[in-house]
Amino acid sequence: MAGINATQLVKEYPGGVRGVDEVDVQIHDGEFFALLGPSGCGKTTLLRSIAGLEAITAGSLVIGDRDVTNAEPGARGVAMVFQDYALFPHMDVGDNIAYPLRIKHVGRDERRATAEKVADGLSLQGLIERRPGQLSGGQQQRVALARAVATRPDVLLLDEPLSNLDARLRLEARTFLKELQRDLGVTTVFVTHDQAEALALADRIAVMKAGKLQQIGTPREVFQRPNNTFVAGFIGSNPMNLVETTVTGGGISIGETSVPVPAGTEGLVRDGQTVIWGIRPEYLRWVSSEEPGAIPAEVSVVENLGASVLIAVNASGHKFQVVVPEDHEPAPGDRGWLVPQAAKTLLFDAE
Ligand code: ADP
Ligand code: MG
C-alpha cells in the first residue's frame, strides 16, 4: 500500500500545451481519490504521469516512500485501467487477466490460479475462456479491472472506467467499484468528468480546470464550500445560481431586496463592491405570499425532474433556478417570492 505525493508537477506537450500545470497533490494510503473536471482539463495526462506513461516536464512524484519521478512504469507499483479497457482481443479472459503476471515471469499454473481467483472476485466466473469480443461492456470493464488488480498493485489508476457503460449499468458498476476498492483497500485514483460519480464514490475530490487544480476536498467540502465560481458551477446536479451584484448598506442587492451577506463575510465586503452571490437551486424556496427578506420574482420556464421541478425565474433582471417539490409546481408567468436559506449562501470575488 502506498500514498502518492506529487509536487509542482508539469507536463508540457510539444507545441507548449500544458496538460498538467504545477499540480501539488497528496493522495493518502488507501484513499479513493477522484480527479474531476471537464474534457481536456488534464485528468488523463495527470493519471498517465503518475503511471509513468508520460515523462513529466518538471516536478517530482513520490509513491509510498520511493521517488519515482524517473522510474519505469513497471517499477512504480501501479496498475492502470484505460478508458477503452485496452483488452487483448485475441486472448481469452484468463490470459488477459494473467498478462501482467506473465510479464513478471510468474509460472503458468500460478498465473491461471490467480486469474481464476481474481475473476471470481469480480463476478466473471465461467467467462475465463471467452474472448473480449464475446463479452458485454460491463463484463469487459470487469476484466480490465481484474487485470489491473491481479498484480496486487499499491496504486490503482482508473481513467473514466464507467463512461462506456449505459446509464443503468453505470450505477451498478459504481457500487461494485466502491465495494472492490473497500475490500482491497488499495489507493485508487479515479478520473471522471461526471461530478455525481465523483461525489458518490470518492473520499476526496480534486477539481481540475485547464491543467490546474482548483480545489481538493471531501465531497461535502467541494459541494458546500467551493473555492471559486468554477467549482461552484461544476459540482451539483443543478448548477449553482451565481449572480453578479453589489454590496449596498451591508447587504447583497437583488433588485429592491437586500439579502444578508453570508455569515463570516461581514467584515470582508464594503459598500459599492461588486461580488458574485451564490446559492444552489435546492436552497431557494419558492413561495406565493410575501415573507420578510424574500425576493420578488416571476416564473419563466418550468422543467420536470421527476420527483421535483426545476423552475427558472427572473428577479429584477437576475435569473435564478429553483428546485420545487412536485406538488408545488408553479406555471410560467406566475409571480411569487424566493426565500434563500441564509446559511447556504456564498460570496465569491467578481472575476
Ligand atoms: P482530459 O483527460 O481531462 O480530457 P487530457 O489530459 O487528455 O484531458 O488533455 C489535457 C490537454 O492536453 C488537452 O488540451 C489536450 O488537447 C492536450 N493533450 C493531451 N494529449 C496530448 C498529446 N499527446 N499531445 C498534445 N497535446 C495533448
Ligand atoms: Mg481523459
UniProtKB/TrEMBL annotation:
Keyword terms? ATP-binding, Nucleotide-binding, Transport
Gene Ontology molecular function: any one: ABC-type transporter activity
The yes or no answer to whether the keyword ATP-binding is present is: yes
Record's SUPFAM superfamilies? Answer: MOP-like (SSF50331), P-loop containing nucleoside triphosphate hydrolases (SSF52540)
Q: Which Pfam families match?
A: ABC_tran (PF00005), OB_MalK (PF17912), TOBE (PF03459)
Q: Which superkingdom is the protein from?
A: Bacteria
Q: Indicate the segments forming the ABC transporter domain, all copies.
A: 4-235
- Show the SMART domains listed in the entry: AAA
Q: Does the keyword Ribonucleoprotein apply?
A: no
Supply one GO CC term from the record.
ATP-binding cassette (ABC) transporter complex, substrate-binding subunit-containing
Q: What is the protein name stated in its UniProt record?
A: Carbohydrate ABC transporter ATP-binding protein, CUT1 family
Provenance organism: Agromyces cerinus subsp. cerinus
Mind giving the lineage of the organism this protein is from?
Bacteria, Bacillati, Actinomycetota, Actinomycetes, Micrococcales
